[in-house]
Structure formats: C-alpha cells, structure tokens
Write a structure and sequence with these properties.
This protein has three domains: 4-131, Beta-Lactamase (2-Layer Sandwich); 132-230, Helix Hairpins (Orthogonal Bundle); 231-386, Heat Shock Protein 90. The chain is an alpha+beta fold. It has a five-stranded antiparallel β-sheet, with helices on both faces. It has a five-stranded mixed β-sheet with strand order 7-9-10-12-11. Strands 6-8 form a two-stranded antiparallel sheet. The chain is built from nine helices and twelve strands. The protein is elongated. The model has no long low-confidence stretch (mean pLDDT 89). The structure holds flavin mononucleotide. Residues 32, 34, 41, 65-67, 69-70, 74, 79, 82-83, 86, 96, 98, 108, 110, 112, 125-127, 129 line the site of flavin mononucleotide (FMN).
C-alpha cells in the first residue's frame, strides 16, 4: 500500500508529464526527439507542427533519421556545422534547405541539443525545426535589391563621370576656336579692308554677338558640369554676405539695374561655399534680370517658414514671372521661357541651381504667374544655432 504522500507525488509527476507532453505537442515549431544509435538519430517522437511542416506522417518519420528532409542537398554549409556539433555532443543552430513530402522547399532553422541520461551519457538529441522561409526569402530579396542598387549606383557614377569629362573637355576645347573667331572679328573690324557701317560690318557685329553668346553657353555648361561632381567642401556659409557680393557684382557690371534689393541679414547655411555662391548668383541674377523692365523693381532674399512648417530660403522678385503650367520644365537644361532678345540667358542656370541644391540634400521649387513676379524657394541644412 502506498502512503498518501507517495500517491500525491506520483499524481503530481503524472500531471507534469501530461502537461509537458501537451506543451511540446502544441508548439508552433517542429519538435523532434532522436535516439542515439551508431551515429544515426532515428526519431522516436515528432510533434504535430513537424508533421504539418514537412507533410510526412508518423509511419514515414518514426524510426527514420531526419536526413530524409535534405533530398539531394546533402552538402549544404549548415550541415558541416551540424555534423561537427553532433560529433562533439554540442548544441547547434543551423540554417538548412529542406524538402517537404510534396517536393516543395523550405528554409529550416534547426536547433539540436544533446539530452544526457542520469549517468551523463548521451542518449538522445532534441531537435527544434523553425520554418523561416518567409524571413529568408525577404532577406534574399533585400540582398538582390541592394546588389542591383549598388550596380545602378556604380553605372550612374560612371555615366556621370563620363558626362562630366565630356562636357568639361568639350567646353575647354570649344573655348580655343571661339577666342580665335573673336580675335579675327576684332582684327577684321580694325582692318582697312573693312567698309565701316555697311552690310559687312553689320554681319561682323552679328558674328561677334553670337560668339559672345556661345562663350556664355560654354561657361554655363562648364559650371553645370562642375556643379555635379567633386566632393562637397561643407562649411558654414554666410548667405547674406554672399548675396550682397553677388548683387553688387551684377550692379557694377550692369549699372542700369535699378531694382531695390532687400537682403535679410544673418542668413547662414551649411554647404559648399563656391556652389552655394553659384546658386545665389543664378537666382539673384534671374530676379534682377526678369525685373529689369518693371518699374519699382524689388528683389528680396530671405528665409521663412512655409505653411507646412518647413524653413526655406527664398529669392522673390516682382518682374515678368512665368506661367506655372510650364513649371515642370523650369529646372531642365536649355529650357527657356523668355526669348533671347527679351531676356538673354543660357537656359542652364536653374538646372545648375537644382543640381547643387539636390546634391546638398535640399529641394528647390518656384511659384509664379505671368506679370506677377516669381519666387524661388530652396532648402539647405542650416547650422544648429540659426
Ligand atoms: C533530433 C534531430 C533532428 C534533426 N532534424 C533535422 C531536420 O529537420 N532537417 C535536417 O535536414 N536535418 C535534421 N537533422 C540532422 C540529420 O538527422 C543528420 O543528423 C545530419 O544530416 C547529419 O548526418 P549525416 O552526416 O548522416 O547527413 C536532425 C538531427 C537530429 C539529431
């Protein structure tokens, strides 16, 4: 007859065993137990999740070593690690490519752990099968995407580099014949053979002004090429001082420019000084140019917070303006809204501005209406205190 206490202990051990069995049976991961038998591990137990995962039934599983899941993939890298761990009675977690009964593949993150008997001798291994197919497929897709992005970035860098060297050498190579044309024009003008004031003199004048325009185009092309390459030398730039210098330069070169220019003091940004100078030169140059025929022309350079709460710099004028329907083309190279005779220009200035601002991680936008002036907004990183 058992004592009441012994009976109670036996009951509680039984409850524990049943609970343990149920817990293992209801695990979402596959759980298997393999008996150690001459270097093989024939399974003595597999839970429901294992059968569900592999599609095999107990008759095909119990008594067999799990290697039947590997199909022809018996030399996968994970298996080397697993074989070493099994041989040394160690736990291991490996990633294996396995096959279900219907031949479909899945990624199995398998953990095997040795189970020792009371005397410390290895008797079994417990294996936990975790189906990580979705995770691995996603990771593979991310890897493929990264590779293709890296390839594209490399191709883009190469294309950019050849474009830069093309436009830069083209620009340099064009300068020499152009200055020769200009030189001969000047010589011809002074020449005694040149009848003054006649048709020939007029044609010569046209050649000269076209050569002049071509020179400006070459300069602008060179600037555009430079705006796109070379490492950015980022420093704190005093944009207000730069703007003042730019405007003074324009007014010196064209004293007829009568616009009143307001420059907000203390505007600073982080960026490459020579490139940001180029941005201001283009935007303020445009503002002065397109307001030059407006009475009481006013140009304003400042910084404001947009309705969306974004701090942005702006260059505003009350000049000619343009139709916003064409705004999409505004920043493209060689896009011009006004005729050369009305407002001379190269059509490269805003393309250069956009490239520079984009390279600094900012954005440039414009708002305008015909006859109502224009405002160009651009964002740049600013020093912490500003
Ligand atoms: C408990 C246990 C579970 C295992 N489960 C898997 C499994 O799900 N998939 C698999 O490919 N291998 C599994 N293995 C590994 C193989 O059964 C086998 O040990 C391995 O392929 C190395 O043996 P081999 O050198 O004869 O191929 C398991 C091993 C043990 C001990």
């Amino acid at each position: 007859m058992q004592s009441d206490q012994a009976q109670a202990e036996e009951d509680s051990a039984h409850v524990e065993r049943v609970l343990l069995h149920r817990a293992i049976a209801s695990s979402q991961n596959g759980i298997t137990i393999g008996r150690v038998s001459n270097g093989q591990f024939p399974l003595i137990y597999a839970n429901r999740a294992f059968y569900h995962l592999t599609g095999y039934g107990p008759a095909e599983v119990i008594g067999n070593d799990c290697r039947f899941l590997q199909g022809r993939l018996t030399r996968q890298p994970g298996l080397e690690t697993l074989r070493a761990a099994l041989a040394q009675t160690r736990e291991a977690t490996v990633l294996l490519r396995n096959f279900r009964k219907d031949g479909t593949e899945f990624w199995n993150e398998l953990t095997v752990s040795p189970v020792l008997g009371d005397n410390g001798v290895l008797t079994h291994y417990v294996g936990i099968q975790h189906d990580v197919t979705e995770r691995e497929n996603n990771a593979q897709a991310v890897r493929a995407l990264n590779q293709s992005l890296a390839r594209q970035a490399e191709e883009l860098a190469l294309a950019n580099e050849s474009l830069r060297s093309f436009s830069s050498s083209a620009s340099h190579d064009l300068r020499a014949p152009l200055s020769s044309i200009k030189g001969f024009c000047a010589a011809l003008k002074k020449s005694a053979d040149m009848p003054q004031g006649g048709r020939s003199a007029h044609y010569l004048g046209r050649i000269e002004s076209n050569a002049e325009r071509m020179g400006q185009l070459i300069e602008a092309l060179l600037k555009l090429a430079q705006s796109n390459t070379g490492a950015l030398q980022v420093v704190e730039c005093n944009l207000s001082a730069m703007a003042r210098e730019v405007v003074d330069g324009f007014k010196r070169a064209s004293p007829e420019l009568a616009a009143t220019v307001h420059i907000e003091p203390g505007l600073t940004a982080l960026g490459d000084a020579s490139l940001l100078y180029s941005v201001l030169q283009n935007l303020l140059g445009n503002a002065l140019k397109y307001s030059s025929k407006t009475p009481d022309a006013t140009v304003h350079f400042g910084r404001e917070v947009s309705s969306a709460g974004q701090a942005r710099f702006f260059v505003r004028d009350n000049g000619e303006g343009f139709d916003m329907k064409a705004a999409a083309k505004l920043f493209g190279a060689f896009e011009r809204f006004h005729s050369e005779s009305d407002f001379p220009g190269t059509g490269l200035g805003l393309a250069t501005v956009r490239r520079i601002v984009m390279r600094h991680g900012g954005a440039v936008t414009a708002e305008s209406a015909p006859g109502e002036g224009a405002v160009f907004y651009f964002t740049l990183e600013t020093p912490p205190a500003s």
